[in-house]
Specification:
The protein has a domain at 2-101: P-loop containing nucleotide triphosphate hydrolases (Rossmann fold, 3-Layer(aba) Sandwich), CATH 3.40.50.300. It is 39% helix and 12% strand. The chain contains 5 helices and 4 strands. Helix 2 (25-36) links the parallel strand 1 (15-19) and strand 2 (44-48). The longest helix has 17 residues, at 104-120. It is globular, with a radius of gyration of 17 Å.
Length: 144
């Protein structure tokens, strides 16, 4: 998905950086540093996968987050959003989900809501403690 977004953004004249699982730790650190040092008058778009941007980094240079691919576990998305909501954030943060109707992504969003409901019922488990996507979850997403 990131590569599909990167080319048209660059063609439209935007400066972009990419943060994903293909990069080693040193490369990711360089991308994050470059993004954090970007100037307000020279906006930069950071295209980041959820898993590579969900823990251990600060992205306070960002003020807008667009979630394009929901993750079945809502805690992963929440952690990624928290990278922008950090001490040092000077701008108002806006988070937008782009979900097509009747898509697998819409089903995953519904699955997230089910998981949040389960955890809020006092099961004693936090959403990131839920083991993984089970067969029933997969069937739900695929519409079976």
């Amino acid at each position: 998905m990131l590569l599909l977004l990167e080319e048209p953004l660059k063609a439209a004249g935007f400066k972009t950086l990419r943060l994903d699982g293909t990069q080693n730790a040193r490369q990711r650190a360089q991308v994050i540093e470059q993004f954090q040092l970007s100037k307000v008058d020279e906006p930069m778009i950071l295209l980041a996968s959820l898993k590579s941007s969900s823990t251990g980094i600060n992205l306070t240079a960002a003020s807008r987050v667009y979630l394009m691919e929901p993750w079945w576990n809502p805690a992963v998305e929440e952690q990624a959003m928290d990278r922008v909501h950090r001490i040092g954030q000077k701008e108002e943060v806006k988070i937008v989900r782009l979900i097509a109707k009747n898509s697998i992504e819409e089903k995953i969003l519904q699955l997230q809501e089910r998981k949040k409901e389960i955890t809020s019922r006092g099961s004693g488990r936090r959403s990131n403690d839920i083991a993984g996507m089970g067969i029933n979850d997969l069937r739900f997403v695929l519409g079976e």
